[in-house]
């Protein structure tokens, strides 16, 4: 966890006004001052990272819910995942793109009938249009 805290401190030194959501396993967590802010505003439970630092967070599968809340409440936040920093919109687009690519990569082309292939292409087109 100290690696996440080092990342957090570096980012906060660069931009103290932004709340940073750090991906940790199956959760997005906030540390230190960011955790205190979100805990107070959204009633997240604070826990100790160590004796001096608190954390709070929410499960990854709740991201869409909290994204909407943060945007509606004008929370300036960024997501940190795999050493990449995303703003909320870019993160959702990236997530959608990864989902689309996974869907394409799992298709067994030889197993599709002509009709199924046609419907698959239509579905991919619809998903692609949503990314724009």
Secondary structure blueprint with pairings:
Blueprint (H helix, E strand, L loop, with lengths): L1 H13 L4 E6 L2 E5 H11 L4 E2 L5 E6 L3 H10 L4 E5 L2 E4 H18 L8 H18 L1
Helix pairs in contact: 4-5
> What's the domain count?
2
Number of helices: 5
Q: Widest sheet: strand order?
A: 3-4-2-1-5-6
What distance separates the N and C termini? 36 Å
Helix percentage: 40-55%
Radius of gyration: 19 Å
User: Into which percentage range does the β-strand content fall?
Assistant: 15-25%
- Pick out the low-confidence regions: none
Query: Sheet with the most strands?
Result: 6 strands, mixed
What is the second-level CATH architecture of the largest domain?
3-Layer(aba) Sandwich
Q: What is the average of the pLDDT values?
A: 84
Description:
- By secondary structure, this protein is an alpha+beta fold.
- It has helices at 2-14, 32-42, 63-72, 88-105, 114-131, and strands spanning 19-24, 27-31, 47-48, 54-59, 77-81, 84-87.
- Helix content is 53%, strand content 21%.
- Strands 3-4-2-1-5-6 form a six-stranded mixed beta sheet, with helices on both faces.
- The model has no long low-confidence stretch (mean pLDDT 84).
- The longest helix is centred in the C-terminal third of the chain and has 18 residues, at 88-105.
